[in-house]
Predict the structure.
Amino acid sequence: MEKGLLIVVSGASGTGKGTVCKKLLAEIPTLYYSISATTRRPRVGETDGVEYFFLTREEFQRWIDEGKFLEHAEVYGNFYGTPAHKIEERLERGEDVLLEIDIQGALNVMAKKPDGVYIFLLPPSLEELSNRIKNRGTESPETFARRFKSAVGEIETGLRYQYAVVNDTVDAAAEKIKAIIAAERCRVSRNAALFQNLTNSKEM
Amino acid sequence: MEKGLLIVVSGASGTGKGTVCKKLLAEIPTLYYSISATTRRPRVGETDGVEYFFLTREEFQRWIDEGKFLEHAEVYGNFYGTPAHKIEERLERGEDVLLEIDIQGALNVMAKKPDGVYIFLLPPSLEELSNRIKNRGTESPETFARRFKSAVGEIETGLRYQYAVVNDTVDAAAEKIKAIIAAERCRVSRNAALFQNLTNSKEM
């Protein structure tokens, strides 16, 4: 059996990674969502063990020490990490795993998992990006300015990914990612068994 | 504007390239079908200028001399060629071009057009492949045996393509190819303009 796909959805802050991933999970029930850990505080409506594992700095450090992370990084003064346990297990079972992750984390995963599928979400325009960061409403003006400048700078990092998807509407972006998943399943490099079965069959 | 996609659908004889491509053209009206030229005789139901340009050997040689082919090759004693005119013109205009082509021809195009999308159709099983070649009903037993053996041998060539699609049902195969087209449009390498627009915009 072929391994599952590691699908990494990433992008600058405010490009709507979370919303797009929620849509994907609703439409592809077999997709396993890998929950990240963070030391940042939950936003309104976020639940521990659903959007993130919300850890204290001490707990986060313990997870590092115990080798529980595929990667971890500091972003805007908070720590974020991708728990490795379960991801490999699911992939080996042929299940697809979805990872929603910031850019720094995605680049770290890319180095360790070159056969993953790396998708970069883009805002439809810088104006829209600015609006989205503002509308989040959880930032002070200083935090907003810093975050917007950083987000614009981050867009160039997308050139290191395989796929770029413009998040103009959540539905359209999710459809494109579904197409990418379907296409990646057809990659010759992921279908060695298929060729082996056809060419090793008995003479007819 | 980004260039159109050159989509090359190929595969061993009897894997149903023609039927799958017809389905694709019916579902994606903007797709431009590049008609090949051949010196083989039309099969029942085939029309000059629709499935192929049916040429005499002399006409075919004249097209070669006039540099009209992107590639040409001899297969089973007949000549097949891909007319270059129009393909490049359409691609430059941003239109997608579909090329249905035998393996030898596809490998020739691959060498000249490395940014094309190369899709290899596979039969669901060797038994099914044998049935399909038989059911075509246009072959003598000798031709059948030669063609079947050759088709099985050709399957390994698929490892040189980017994508492999099992043609178990025409609908499913066409859906997969549509997903591949949608995914390829999202490739970062095909979206330089998108990144440039976002990163060159004025400061906000």
